[in-house]
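Subgroup meeting minutes
Present: P.N., E.W., G.H.
Scribe: E.W.

1. P.N. recapped why we're keeping a running log of single-chain structure predictions: easier to compare across weeks, and new members can see raw inputs and outputs side by side.
2. G.H. added today's entry (398 aa).
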Amino acid sequence: MNPSISQSLVKDSPPAPLAGSGMEFWSLTPDMTFLNHGSFGARPLDVVAAHQSMKQQLDHDPFDVLVYRGQALLDEARSRVADLVGSDLDDLVSVINASEAVNSVLRSIRPRSDQNLVATCHGYNAVNQTIRHVCDRSGAQMRTVQLEPPLPDEAGLVDAIMDQVDRDTCLVMIDHVSSPTAMLFPVKSVIDKCHQLDVPVMVDGAHIPGMMPLDVTAIGADYYTGNLHKWVSAPLGSAFLHVHPSHQSSIHPIVISHDLGEGYQTEFAWTGSRDPSAFFSVPAAIDWFESRFGWEAVQAHNRDLVSWATGRLCDEWGVEPLDVPDSSRATSMRTIELPDRVKRHFDDIEDWRIWLRETHRIDAAVHDWAGRWWVRLSAHVYNRPEHYEHLIRNGLAF
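Output recorded in log:
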């Protein structure tokens, strides 16, 4: 193994597959090597069936699902999500995705022109674009913390973020695990320091539910959002927003509907006619993992598999993973720099990704970040060592 690769980020051997986890239990097409769970997730067949059943009930009798049973179905799903993520039920509402949650919060806080909002260069582009939009409309300043290789340790990350925060900061936006770089941020430390200055914090935890143990209440963020279509493998269109009670009266959904002024829970419960079947099906996804494996086994398998794959790929390709702090070994994703010859052969990194899909039926996330090209590997229970070996053999075969 390449001695320069952090030993805490790799494993010498892959974990044993979990019984009942293979591709035959998932809706993914069998001819695609899918190493990109972190982008859109994937659904077990049982979850797809539960979702289709709910959609059928909605189509057969919309009034029954949306009105007669709607609040009970919503409350049941919210309760299961609250238990999973460590939230009080009254503090958690359903949204379609983390982007909707971010927009709801950012459009509600209404910064003044003499204030600033702080984010990092690791932030999800859609989130940072929303911050830019809000700042452009209000005249507030967007401060982007530049954290590029070589990256600091956790204490250095906190210091770099806090260097941009002052008493005129109206919000700090921080990823829990970043999308382009798969880095686990020390969110609790940032939140504690921001709160000493009375500065609120929103955590974009899009990847965290199902990937890692989560206790939203203990983290103490003013606002926290997470997607459920990723590592929980619920249907697309299922996510949550958690708002601390002290802020709930001032936060409104991005779509204002009949219940404006009726309170946080009531306003988010109905934002116009929409299909709520994805969120109503979340309990089926949670049940699938809990009854088959248990979350601890799922998370251990995934982090060990992606750690092993990181070592294999780096050894065979002669490259390095992004040198994130050792705490990122708890995640189910790794970001690895591509060899220079990929950049010499392709004009754009998306061209390499399309070539991978069309020529070798491999799907992996790619990023052009900090002036370098990266591939982000994901691991979930259906992935096997041979999936990563397929990428190793063919990813540079051009």
